[in-house]
Backbone:
């Protein structure tokens, strides 16, 4: 019974990681950059929900929608202002800029909300469900349902729609896509918009399950989700989902059965093992080296 | 207009090779910096807040040089460099605390602690380097990050105590099982306390100079050229017989050992040594990476300047109070865009062209 409940909360945590990892992996696939500021977008989303719902008493659903809109606009603005001028620059330069953006978001939040940890109240209104002596909280149910819906929708979007096709084309070959009349800048903005919207949802769900919010809340989940994206094969959308869920399950099980302090170390050790056996992640494509 | 000469004959005639000149200039810069601040602090003209920055600047500079060896010279992105610093810091501090009462000569003990820290970090670098260097690009980066985090987590659950019957190591404070009169040396999340504070600006300066001399000479050696050839084109280098694994590992291990020394310097600058995200986690690794990239990949002098300047920047901004980290972030983003953005790069080219053109007309 303990195993089952650990497993379920692991899947729920993993779904949150997967939502964040999707943002990382899509941006990586299309802009070939590691967006280190992605974790902080989660934090911004959570703060918007906090201000709207906990402080402002807004309807939770409206609050989450507001956060989604806010983060989408923020994501597109960050891309336009900070990353677009560096489209042709070396990848390390973009990485450092992303780190700068991450510092910027953290310190803006620090100025506005101060450094103390805020008590977040859940935006989920589902009652806990008890099946055969196993109680599952409403937050966990909501997280899993929302994540599954989003993942299915995203898969359909990428595979079946015209913008989705354009996204795949840009990630395959930017130059050729441009020659085929695809608006590459528009697609990159769209990717950032989707990634940031997912981050806002992940932020609201994460802070509902683990109700503590500070300007640094996004950093560690961001890193873990990044690990999840690499775990599944960075650039691959199904990989991010599988990687995220696996990571959450491994983390929760090692917290429950081995050591809560060492759980991060175990997660990272599993990542290293996977990469040593399969150097491009679980679902990553192996690209032959051109000479 | 004097043309840049790369011809060895002409440089020999001038006495020194261009590389040597460049390195001497870097050394001179560090020496002048040291002399200036040492005399300022001796005269008491330096505020306490700035005084306490001097040793941290030294270890930041050492870390930046060491990471530049890995990222700029070897060309492998690492975001877990603070892990090696952590290994060095803990091993060095452990030795110092254990021998604090038996070893009378302070400087000798400190020296041995340095050697131990460097050796331990080098061993860690070797153990991590063997699997990690098989990977490429971003995958390699994420694995270095993972190793850094593992080192930090493990150090936080390690308990080491000593009593009459020797050392006791456990992963749980209750299981250490010390006898009467035993002392905890490494106490899990509380870390190591009571490290003698041997670090000072002079020691830091000497270490910076040593690091500089080692790394610049390495870059100018056969090994260094082999390492750089791997960075520029691994396949071409391999095809003319450069041993990839050997040279990659050499650079990685040397870089780790230097980071270990920086760690020892760090540990002996504080009374209590603990490991958290800000000192040995990814925050530190990323901060050092920022120094290296802003200073210029592969440019040792750039790393030194960037590390010293950026480390003191938040302190200089202290006047603007709570906005200082915000300003730091904005400065960072603007600097990156101005340095690398397509628009600014073109503008700079144009400007350069115009200045040159103007000169020609005048002549």
Residues:
């Amino acid at each position: 019974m303990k195993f089952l409940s650990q497993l379920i909360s692991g899947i729920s945590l993993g779904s949150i990681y997967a939502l964040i990892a999707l943002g990382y992996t899509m941006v990586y696939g299309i802009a070939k950059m590691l967006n280190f500021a992605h974790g902080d977008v989660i934090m911004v989303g959570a703060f918007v929900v906090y201000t709207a719902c906990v402080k402002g008493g807004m309807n939770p659903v409206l609050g989450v929608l507001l956060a989604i809109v806010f983060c989408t606009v923020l994501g597109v603005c960050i891309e336009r202002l900070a990353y677009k001028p560096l489209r042709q620059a070396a990848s390390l330069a973009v990485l450092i800029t992303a780190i700068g953006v991450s510092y910027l978001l953290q310190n803006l939040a620090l100025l506005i909300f101060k450094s103390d940890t805020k008590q977040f109240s859940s935006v989920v209104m589902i009652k806990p469900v008890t099946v055969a002596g196993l109680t599952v909280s409403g937050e966990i149910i909501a997280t899993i349902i929302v994540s599954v819906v989003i993942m299915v929708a995203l898969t359909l979007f990428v595979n079946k729609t015209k913008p989705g096709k354009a996204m795949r084309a840009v990630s395959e070959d930017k130059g050729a896509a441009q020659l085929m009349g695809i608006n590459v800048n528009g697609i990159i903005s769209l990717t950032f918009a989707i990634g940031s919207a997912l981050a806002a949802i992940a932020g609201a769900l994460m802070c509902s399950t683990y109700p503590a919010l500070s300007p640094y809340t996004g950093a560690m989940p961001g890193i873990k989700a990044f690990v999840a994206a690499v775990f599944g094969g960075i650039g691959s959308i199904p990989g991010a989902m599988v990687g995220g869920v696996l990571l959450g399950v491994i983390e929760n099980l090692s917290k429950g059965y081995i050591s809560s302090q060492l759980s991060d170390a175990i997660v990272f050790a599993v990542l290293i093992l996977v990469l040593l056996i399969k150097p491009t992640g679980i679902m990553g494509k192996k690209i032959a080296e051109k000479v | 207009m004097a043309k840049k000469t790369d011809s060895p004959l002409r440089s020999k005639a001038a006495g020194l090779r261009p590389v040597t000149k460049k390195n001497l200039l870097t050394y001179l810069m560090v020496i002048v910096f040291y002399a200036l601040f040492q005399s300022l602090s001796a005269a008491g003209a330096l505020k306490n807040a700035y005084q306490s920055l001097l040793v941290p600047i030294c270890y930041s500079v050492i870390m930046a040089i060491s990471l530049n060896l890995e990222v700029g010279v070897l060309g492998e992105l690492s975001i877990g460099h603070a892990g090696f610093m952590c290994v060095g810091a803990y091993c060095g501090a452990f030795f110092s605390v254990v021998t604090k009462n038996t070893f009378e000569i302070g400087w000798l003990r400190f020296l041995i602690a340095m050697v131990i820290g460097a050796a331990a970090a080098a061993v860690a670098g070797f153990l991590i380097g063997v699997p990690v260097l098989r990977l490429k690009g971003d995958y390699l980066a994420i694995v270095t990050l993972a190793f850094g985090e593992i080192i930090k987590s493990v150090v936080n659950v390690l308990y080491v105590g000593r009593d009459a019957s020797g050392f006791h190591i456990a992963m749980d404070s209750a299981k250490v099982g010390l006898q009467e009169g035993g002392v905890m040396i490494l106490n899990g999340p509380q870390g190591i306390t009571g490290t003698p504070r041997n670090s000072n600006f002079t020691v830091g300066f000497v270490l910076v100079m040593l690091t500089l001399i080692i790394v610049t000479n390495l870059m100018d050696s056969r090994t260094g050229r082999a390492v750089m050839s791997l960075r520029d084109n691994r396949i071409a280098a391999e095809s003319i017989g450069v041993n990839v694994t050997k040279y990659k590992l050499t650079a990685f291990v040397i870089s780790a050992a230097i980071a270990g020394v920086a760690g020892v310097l760090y540990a002996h600058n504080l009374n209590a040594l603990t490991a958290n995200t800000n000192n040995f986690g990814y925050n530190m690794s990323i901060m050092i990476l920022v120094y290296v990239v802003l200073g210029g990949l592969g440019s040792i002098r750039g790393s030194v300047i960037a590390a010293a300047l950026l480390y003191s920047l938040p302190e200089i901004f202290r006047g603007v109070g709570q906005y200082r980290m915000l300003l730091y972030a904005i400065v960072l983003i603007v600097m990156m865009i101005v340095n690398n953005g397509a628009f600014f790069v073109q503008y700079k080219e144009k400007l350069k062209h115009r200045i040159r053109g103007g000169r020609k007309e005048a002549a």
In short: The longest strand of chain A covers residues 129-131. Strands of chain A lie at 118-119, 129-131, 134-136, 212-213.
